Every structure is written in C-alpha cells, then in structure tokens.
Amino acid sequence: MKRMAVAAVAVLAGALATTVSPVAVAAPQPSADLLAAMQRDLGLDATQAAERLRQESAAAVLQRVAEGFAGESYGGAWFDASIGKLVVGVTDAAKTDRLRKLGAEPRTVAHKASDLDAAKAKLDASQAPAEVTGWYVDTKANAVTITVKRGQAQAAQALVEKAGSVAKVVETDEAPRLFKDTRGGDAYYINNAGRCSVGFAVAGGFVTAGHCGSPGDTVTGVDKTAMGEFEKSSFPGNDYAFVRTNSSWTSTPKVNHYGGADVIVSGNTESAVGASICRSGSTTGWHCGEVQAKSQTVNYQEGSVSGLTRTNVCAEPGDSGGSWVSGTQAQGVTSGGSGNCTSGGTTYYQPVNEILQTYGLTLTTG
Predict the structure, then answer these.
(1) Contacts of residue 247, Cβ cutoff 8 Å, sequence gap at least 6
(2) Among 217, 248, 247, 177, residue whose Cα is nearest residue 321
(3) In the list 2, 36, 51, 321, which could disulfide-bond 209, CB 3.0-4.6 Å?
(4) 333-343: b or e for each residue (b if 16 or more CB lie within 10 Å)?
(5) 311 pairs with which residues across the strands?
(6) Catalytic, out of 239, 271, 280, 287
(7) Do residues 281 and 334 lie in contact, with contact meaning Cβ atoms separated by under 8 Å?
C-alpha cells in the first residue's frame, strides 16, 4: 500500500510539473492601467511587465502544490523576480529534487513555516514597548523579524526570548502610522469639545466654517485621533476657515453621501440661482434642495456675515462647515440657518470659491 502511495505521488508530481510550470500557465490579460503602473513603479517596460505577471500567476498556482508536497518540512515560499520562479524553503533536503521537477527553486532552511507562525502568534499575544514598531514572518530570512526604532534593539529583548531561536531584530527609521482620509461632511472635533463638519479637502488640509474655531484651536478627526489645527479663520464678516491637517491625514475629493457612495468632487464651478444643491453634514447627513439667492447678509446674534448663499435645504447644529455640492461641483460650506430637518428650514452657505481665493488654497478634485 505504501509503495502504491509513493508511486501515486510520483505520477502526480510529474503531471504537475507540466501543468503549473511558468511556461505552461496561460498569460493573464492585464489592463493597460496595470501595465502602466508596473512600468512606473517597478521600472519595467510593457513586455517585461506582462512577462512578470505570467510568471507570478504560475508561481501562485505552484505555491499551493509545493506546500502540499513539502508537508511538515515546508519552510515558506516567495517569488524571486530575478529568476522568474517560485522559491520554496524546506527543512528536508531530500525533497529538493522533487520540488525542482515541479518547477520551483528549492532552498534548504532551518525552520518550518509552522514554527515561524507559532512564534509570531506568541508575539501577537504580547504587549510590546513603544520602541518596537512591529513583527512579521520573514519568509526569505526564514525568521520572525522584530522591527525596532534605530538604536533601541535592547527594547525587543523580551520579545526575542518569547519567540525563541527564530527571532531576528532589525532596526528601522520607519515610524508606522495610520493613513486616514479627509472627507467632506465628516465630523471633526474642536479642542476635544465642540463638533463641526469638514467642508472640502484642499492641499494641506480642509476648509470649513469660521465660527467653528480660531487659529491655534486643535482638531481631532471623526475617529477622535489628532488631525491638525485651525491655521486661518474669519468670523464674523465672513464665515470660513482653513484647518491644516497632520501627516496622518490624506486630502481626498470625497464627500460623504451618508448612506450612498461618496460623491467625488470634480471641480468648483458655481451653480445658478434655482439650481438643485445638496448638503453633507455630520448631524443630519445628506439633504438636498435649491439655491434661492446669492450674496445675502445674515445678522447672526454673534455678528453679521455677508456674501452667503441662501437655500431651502435643512440643517442642524454640528452640520456647520459641511459640504455643499451641485452635481459633482463644490459650492460652499455650511454657515447657519433656521429650522431643522424635521420641520424644514432655510440654510446659508459660504461660497467655496471665495475661501480658496482668499487663502490661496487648491481644492482636491478627482
């Protein structure tokens, strides 16, 4: 029975060598955009990019076969672009010839992939000091690599002891952080207290209502993490402001549709009186209506603001600063009004073009 099983594996390996080798796998049909991106970012020409995709497709198929064949001795696999093949690590050197016949490039390694995964799982259950920036199964190095800030290798000692002989410490200058989108209509918080809404993302930050904050006021984002601070603000007289965001936040042309796909702002062409218009805000979400008048002066209790646009769209506290769009064209940021979104009302917005011009800002468009 054992001889029959061995024979069956040999037959299977021979068959697989003809079906999953890089030469035998059909070339994928990459899009022009994908090829262009590979040429730009990997330094390839169109032919090289297409060939690499074919090789990677073959390697993806072969990886599963090779892992099954290697069994407990499997030490991980990776695609080596320099040879155009899948490299497979095994702890049992006797398996290398068969792997080569399958179309892989075998390497004898010290640690099984299962041991590396188990060591990483121990670290995942551990508390790490701030000097440690992360860890991962480093397949090519056949190790669990623990990354630490430059000059702080000693901080990883407890983790090294927990992971055991598979651990490897690498110092790095990288400081990982979250990447978050600045999106119109989302909430933000001023001095960890009041709440307003993002108007539109611009280069370096976003525009919003001036009555929401003064220069120097700190801002946290919709996720309550540090976002930036008010750099410029004008109220009363006008009602606009510019918040400069920190490096964790990326300006995007998105406006939150609250329940639908984000609106992608494509420009800032001003709409006419009578045109339809929609508003996004963090209290009441998405509401639409019509432009009723332009250049209105509104006498708020806190002071007069001129140059506002009047609409019959509803809004409520917390919507201030939020986005107004006509189609995909940016129109302005919410100032104030009367009524609410139960009974209806009148709401005014500060035209965005005045804000961009006054502060010399560039609207983020898609």
Answers:
(1) 177
(2) 217
(3) 321
(4) bbbbbeeebee
(5) 291, 347
(6) 239
(7) yes
Q: Are 124 and 116 in contact (CB under 8 A)?
A: no
Residue 86 banded pLDDT, cuts 50, 70, 90: very high
Query: Residue 9's pLDDT band (boundaries 50, 70, 90)?
Result: very low
Question: Do residues 284 and 315 lie in contact, with contact meaning Cβ atoms separated by under 8 Å?
Answer: yes
Rounded Cα–Cα distance for residues 335 and 72 (Å): 66
Q: From CA 200, how far away is CA 208, in angstroms rounded?
A: 7
- The question of whether 239 is a catalytic residue gets the answer yes
CA distance 320 to 315: 8
What are the pLDDT digits (tens) for 304-324? 999 999 999 999 999 999 999
- Active-site annotation holds for 197: no
CB contact at 8 A, 364 and 251? yes
How many C-beta atoms lie closer than 10 Å to residue 251's C-beta? 19
Q: What is the spatial distance between Cα 100 and Cα 121, in angstroms, rounded to a whole number?
A: 31
**Chain centroid offset of residue 284 CA:** 26
CA torsion sign, 311 to 316 to 224 to 256?
A: negative
The length of the chain in residues reads 366
State the Cα–Cα distance between residues 217 and 30, nearest whole angstrom: 49
Q: What is the mean pLDDT of the chain?
A: 89
Residue with the bigger pLDDT between 29 and 84: it is: 84
Give yes or no: 173 in active site: no
Q: What sign results for the dihedral spanned by CA atoms 282, 284, 287, 293?
A: negative
Which entry of 73, 138, 186, 211 is annotated as an active-site residue?
Answer: 211
- Give the active site residue among 320, 323, 326, 335: 320
**For residues 281 and 274, is the Cβ–Cβ distance under 8 A?**
no
Q: Is the pLDDT of residue 347 over 80?
A: yes
The whole-angstrom separation of Cα 137 and Cα 183 is 35
Ramachandran assignment for 134, one of left (phi > 0), alpha (psi -120 to 50 degrees), beta (any other): left
